[in-house]
Design brief:
mainly alpha
């Protein structure tokens, strides 16, 4: 999964377009979740590829998606990097 592309596209797309796009990546977001996650995009840093995602950011995502779904996203991200 190309998370970089997905994140960049989230900034440009409408909520409905983002819903379709996220489903094409195998992510099951609701429009409400997309709206709540969108402001977090500005906090994402590409250097996290080397340093890992900060716990403070993970906590913000967990508030939107819950712990189980957030953990799955992180696991998918880590598997993608291998």
């Amino acid at each position: 999964m190309d998370y970089t592309r997905l994140l960049l596209e989230m900034k440009k797309r409408s909520d409905e377009e983002m819903l379709k796009m996220s489903k094409s990546y195998g992510l099951d977001f609701t429009v409400e979740e997309i709206r709540m996650l969108r402001p977090l995009l500005d906090e994402i840093s590409m250097h996290w590829i080397l340093t890992g995602v900060p716990e403070s950011f993970i906590s913000k995502v967990e508030r939107v998606l819950g712990q189980k779904r957030t953990n799955q996203l992180l696991e998918d991200y880590l598997n993608m990097r291998k």
